[in-house]
Amino acid sequence: MTLLEPPRPREPASAASAARFALITPRMWVIAALAGTLAIFTLVIPATDLFDVPSVPPPSGLSTEGTVLAVVDEGDRDAAVGGGRFQELAVEVDGEEVAVRHEWSPGGLGPQALAPGEDVVLGYSEVDGERMYYVADHVRRVPLLFLGLALAMVVLAVGWVQGFWSLVGMAASFLVIIRYVVPGILSGADPVAVAVSGSLVIMLVTLYLAHGVSRKTTIALGGTAASLLLTAVVSGFAIEFARLSGISGEDAVTLQILSEGSIDATGLLLAAIIIGSLGVLDDVTVAQTSSVFELRRANRRLGALELYRRAMNIGRDHIASTVNTLVLAYAGVSLPLLIVLSTQAEPLEVLVNREFLATEIVRTVVGSIGIVAAVPITTALAAVVAARTRPALPARQRVEPGLDPPGTLRDRKAPGVAGAVGGDGNGVPGAGGQRLAGDEDDRVPPAEHGPAE
């Protein structure tokens, strides 16, 4: 600006603030709300006294880590004490060398023979101020870290940006479970209320992060929430009807002993079923919602009932494969149990009465009911919304502003008009210009399609 130039008027501060505020899109608001919700459940609530988590001693006693320096001696144990093998080890713990006797049975539980350089977890107890060590397990932190990095690399290589956000969503799920669900149940709160509220937060964060902020994601969220609540109701009835106590395994028994019975065992079982069903439910609901919207985009003349009918044909195939996946997942986890049961002399009609087996059956049945119910619920929601939504044109039909798309009524409005796309002068498409998919639907005014996606 020169001296002869008049000063330029400054933009009012309020207008500038409004302009900057307008740059914040609705998607940014949703992401901010998700971040705030996640912070409340993983940072604010754990920092308050809402959950009074009792101090529970570890079931296997105190532990530390060490590195095997040398194997001083090894041999067979006396058969009078059960046989097996032993090693006298020199182990470095916190910069000091200590002597540790390691005993094991070949093929049994726990670490087998150790070699110098291996990192181990040492359990210990203090007697007269002196620590007595034993080898409790291997240190597996590095292998697990490499496996986690391998998973992340595969997801990023295949999924790119969406894969990145799915990993963020997975991390958020772990945070909610570790920082909210587990402390809430340990504090004696209702396990069902904690599991349902935690699951809703996980759904909100993971679905929007992995699939973006859109109508499709919101519909999938609604279908997942409705199916999850139905699963909770059916699970509560099934547990009561089958008279399950929730104490069917060693972990449940140990937890009841350590917590002195302050945790509702049946409620804990119900919470486990709800959280276990969540991962499969969101897969089904997202797939069904996408199917409905793709059908609508392919043929914009389909109404809600026709969309529902066609999408249910896809959903039935999805049900068959997903239910089978759930059954195989539970069978894989319970494979050692199934092998043990196969060696029992009791007939099957007696074995199913055992609570450890009845619990797994209830898990599978209730989870399958939730999956099957999620398909029609989500499909109905998606069909109603998609029928009222104006789908975006495919990329090959998009035109510059001010120009008419090929195949519209303006091109075919009267017989004999020259210039009809691929026509013969009588408004009939010829071999040189095939009619694009959806041309018939261009004759429907956009207002009849409702709001855009």
Question: Any overview of this molecule?
Answer:
This protein has a five-stranded antiparallel beta sheet with strand order 3-2-1-4-5, with no helix packed on it. It is an alpha+beta fold. The radius of gyration is 32 Å and the shape is globular. Helix 3 crosses helix 4 (191-211) and helix 5 packs antiparallel against helix 11 (355-387). Residues 397-452 have low confidence and may be disordered. Helices cover 55% and strands 11% of the residues. Among the domains are: 64-139, Nucleic acid-binding proteins (OB fold (Dihydrolipoamide Acetyltransferase, E2P), Beta Barrel), CATH 2.40.50.140; 160-387, Multidrug efflux transporter AcrB transmembrane fold.
Neighbour order of strands in the largest sheet: 3-2-1-4-5
What number is the mean pLDDT?
Answer: 80
CATH topology of one domain: Multidrug efflux transporter AcrB transmembrane fold
Poorly predicted regions: 397-452
The CATH architecture of one domain can be named as: Up-down Bundle
Largest sheet: 5 strands, antiparallel
Percent range of helical residues: 40-55%
Work out the helix count: 12
Provide the β-strand percentage band: 5-15%
Quaternary arrangement of the chains shown? single chain
